[in-house]
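User: Okay, second chain of the day. Same drill as before: sequence in, structure tokens out.
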Amino acid sequence: MMRRHVFGLAIFLAATVAGQTAWATLCKENVYITQLGVGTRDGTDSNSDIAFDLSDGSRMYLDTSYNANDAVGRVLYSQLVTAYTLKVPVNIYDNHGSRCDDVSEVWLMRF
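Assistant: Same drill. Structure tokens below.
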């Protein structure tokens, strides 16, 4: 039952940003979340930066507009926790430039 709700939330969130993906840069494809963290990246914003490690050995950060003290940041963090807990692969996108230095979309993929 819980799994159905989690996937329903993921589908809803994915659908709400579907229009943005056309302009987004795909940073990582079909990778797994191996570690999550909330803390400071550069000493700003109340130690609420969200970082996550991926199965390819890289570390990514959510865009600084989407921290743990921001509503969208908490939603994206929930998606990261879901992907980590259920071991679901994700695609990661950057909507703010193409550098992938911080990201703004997390898509849960099929098993």
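Residues 2-108 form a domain with the OB fold (Dihydrolipoamide Acetyltransferase, E2P) fold (CATH 2.40.50).

User: Thanks, on to the next one.
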